[in-house]
C-alpha cells in the first residue's frame, strides 16, 4: 500500500494581474497536486505566475524564440526538486478568450501540462502526444474541466 504523493509546490506570483482572479492561486495548487499525483511525481517544484515580458525573456534565453508564450517548463536534475513552470498572464488570457474558455480552466490546463513535462512527458512526436494529451484530459476531467483538445461548440 502506498501513501500519498508528497509534493512541495512553491507558488510565486510575480505579476499582480494574477491576483485579480479570485480563488485562482488555490486552483493552480490543486491542479499541480492532481497532476503530480497522477504522474507519480514525488518532490518539489515551483510555479511562477508572471507577465508576458518575463515569459518572452525566458523563451528567448532558453528556446531561442523572441516572443512570449503561455507556459514553459524547466525540468531539473536535482534530487528531490523537479524544476520550474512559468505561465504568462497576458498570453493565457488572450488564448482563453479566443478559444471561448474560462481563464481559470485554461490556466488549470497549462499547469497540468507543465507538471507533466516536469514528470518527463512530452508531445513533440505524435506517439508522445497520444500518451500525454489523454492523461491531461483525464486529470482535467477529474477537476470538472472539459477536454481542452476538443473544439468548443459554436
Gist of the model:
The protein is an alpha/beta fold and 154 residues long. It has helices at 24-38, 52-63, 89-99, 103-118, 126-142, and strands spanning 7-13, 43-50, 71-75, 81-88. It has a single domain, classed as Metalloproteases ("zincins"), catalytic domain (Collagenase (Catalytic Domain), 3-Layer(aba) Sandwich).
What key attributes describe this structure?
154 residues; alpha/beta; Collagenase (Catalytic Domain); 5 helices; 4 strands; 46% helix; 18% strand; globular; disordered N terminus
Q: What is the CATH T-level topology?
A: Collagenase (Catalytic Domain)
| Total number of distinct structural domains | 1
CATH superfamily: Metalloproteases ("zincins"), catalytic domain
CATH architecture group name: 3-Layer(aba) Sandwich
- Order of strands across the biggest sheet? 1-2-4-3
